Amino acid sequence: SIRSCVSPPPPTDMGEREVAEMIAMMAATNDGSLSAEPASGTGGGGGGGTHNPSLHPNLFNQAVRDKWNTTMHLFDVGPINMNGSDPMEGSYWNVDVFVDTLTPSFPHLNWRVTTGAGGDTVSGPEGSASGGLSVWECLDTPELRLPDENAFNLIMAIHKKSAKGAPFPLEVVIGRPWKNKKAQLDFLRHAIHAPPEVFTFAHASPLLAPVDGVEGSAMADGGPNRAWACPQLLRTLLDIGESEWNQEVRDLCGHAQRNCPELLLVCLLHVEQPETLTSVGQWLLDQLVPEYFTQTHSNAKAVQRRVATDFPRHFTVILNNMWARDPGCLRKLLDMCNEVRAGLNAVLMQTSPSPFLFEFIHLAYQREYLNLNQWLTQQLRHDVNAAMLGCVAFLKSKMPRTEVRDHVKREGALDRDTVGQFISILQPYSTGIDVKDTTHKEYSSLVAAAIQAFPELSTFSANHTAPAAAAAAHNGETDKAPEAHPNGPHVAANHNGTENQQPAAVAEGPSPTPPYPNGPMETAAAEHEQGAGEQGGQGEGVPEPAAEPPTGESTFLLPHPHGLRPADVPLAPPGTAMTSNDVMEKEVNEYFSELYQGNRTVEQMLALMKELITAPPGSSQREMGSHMFCVLIQESKYFPKYPSNELKKTATLFGFLINDDSVLPDVPRAMCIRTVLEALKKSPKQRLFAFGIVALERCFGSLYKYPNFIHSLLHTPVGKDPSSQITLTPIGYIQEVSGQYSHFISSLFSIFPSHLHEFVIAPMDTHAMLRGKAPQPPEIRDFRYLIDETGKEKAQQRAAG
């Protein structure tokens, strides 16, 4: 009999790990093959899966050799067959014999995963040989591989027999990383496609509800076994996708994208945060968001409503990113929010001021969709410094000005009444801020600029300076409010275009009650009426002074030897890095004027910036260098409007700054890299793409330090070819210009280990290794002429040139 295999003598050392290895062997050899080589490496799954020779010889080796896989009448395995064919086909193992033999012989074996009240796995029965782990928790073994669905079905049949019909414990395979990632991915692939009677996710927690109002979706509820309604499943797949199995995970997620894209997007937002997107998560968002936010999909409103209601911060980030790519779409975004009941509230609830947020609020205020006084007051009560600085920056960007270098009247400039309305709301809060604080100085400069543009607002000057003077007298000092200084285009290039603020990331924070809209959205916003006036705990009085914001120099101008990831790089320079006085402002403009007028070469400009930025901390030279760099980054939004000569020199300067890491610290250099990357995402027909190519040529020799930049050039989708519907990437655009350049970048990508792909700047200790592996840079072909040929001034510039 089979039981004779275990006696005499009866084994006493059989534990959960040994049984799990038996199951792994049985799954790997369920096609009748027993001669496969063992899997190698900690990743597992990369070869055959024969039994481990260290397993108990009495029980296992004899069973393999004589008993359990060669007696045809023991093949009645029933439940493990998914195709409705003869149950004897597809298995070489008898599950009943296997479980019935082990259970009485080893009563202390732990077959069931026990979960505590908080959802944590707890120890199994006393006497368990694997420290309390169940057999199923020991499945993560190098020997496990699942070559086909029969192997998976065999494991499910063994579990069903041992667990007496209880569903498979999901915490074994989702929510925890396996060392054998290939086996985990194969297990989940079969589980996703399995019918619910074989494997189900219906008992997962949480389990997402279908998107209300969706029509035409093949699996609106996540599929027959609810796989794609399980956030933990997607979270596990995204984590596996950060390994060598990235493409396999994309292919598997493509199944959900085709059959339940609406629920997939909701599930993705449930597990991903905008600041820490995985590569597969970013790829899915790039595929799904345009379909439901920029196209007229029949289910677009249903998806927008669900996202705005359940994920208001993600909803705002999506709108922010759309506006960043196309500032002209702001009216469409507001119209969309007006049509979707929860859309406007989702934006109003955000408490981290950004350029997009103020642009959106201003437009909503113009349409009388909200009470500006109430909304801005709530922002100031939540964080007076952040709200004040954000509002001041917005107002300055929209202030009419008459400077010679900005002689074309700025489009979208605010009128007197709107400026006065904003300042009247800010004024009471400015009195509670120390006159030496950056926020107070910025507000003072705003008031001076407003009076210069609208002399009728001079009453604000008396009301504003009185508290400041009183505070100065109390401290025994006298402080004069700073004169207004230009805060727009800082260089000699003529922009002649609409100014658009560079978008900032929407940060997470408490969600205040949105103010009452006075227009079409009144009903939706009224749901949040209760408690709207109670934010901040200050009543109707002036809020307490906020703490002085950090300078940011500790992260902005210091090295990062352990590498830099995208989340470490701000979208814009720290606000304090842009502070300056009139003398500094004048000097910076003179430097750039000398560059663009030909009185200073790009190399000389580079040397000057290096001398200033590397000056001792706290010195006026270092502050000047920091301000020069900030001006350069802030100007990037105007680059498409630059004349050809200025754009060529600016692109060359960017390339030099990236190439020579002794000039800029890591964070500023990473911001230059991002500027070039965004340029290379544009169509080759656009001037900004030509800017990116020229900058790229100047930093070929150091690209081995920037793995995420290279990875993004090869893998970031930027659209689809209208004829073939093939997804386009920046490397394809570069290929159109130079095959040598694209070949060099593709070859460079192969030198980076996968774990470095996320680094904008690789850790310092990897530079020597990467430099040794890097291919020889191609010969620079100097594509500066592209700037002329893609610009509006083609004929004039080529004639001058």
Quote the distance from N terminus to C terminus. Answer: 95 Å
Strand content: under 5%
Q: What is the residue-mean pLDDT, rounded to a whole number? A: 75
Round the Cα radius of gyration to an integer and report it. Answer: 32 Å
| Residues in helix, % | 40-55%
Largest sheet: 2 strands, antiparallel
Strands side by side in the biggest sheet: 1-2
Low-confidence stretches: 1-10, 34-90, 115-129, 402-410, 462-555, 791-801
Q: What would the principal axes of the Cα set say about the shape?
A: globular
**Content-based structural category:** mainly alpha
What does this structure look like?
With 801 residues, this protein is an all-alpha fold. Helices cover 47% and strands 1% of the residues. It is built from 33 helices and four strands. It has helices spanning 16-28, 57-67, 95-105, 149-162, 181-193, 231-240, 246-259, 261-271, 279-293, 300-310, 312-325, 330-339, 343-348, 355-366, 372-382, 384-397, 416-430, 438-453, 459-474, 522-526, 553-556, 582-596, 602-613, 620-634, 644-659, 666-680, 687-697, 707-715, 730-737, 739-749, 767-773, 785-790, 794-800, and strands at 114-115, 121-122, 719-720, 727-728. A two-stranded antiparallel sheet has the order 1-2. Strand 3 and strand 4 (727-728) form a beta hairpin. Helix 25 runs parallel beside helix 27 and helix 26 (666-680) packs across helix 27 (687-697). The radius of gyration is 32 Å and the shape is globular. Mean pLDDT is 75; it is low at 1-10, 34-90, 115-129, 402-410, 462-555 and 791-801.
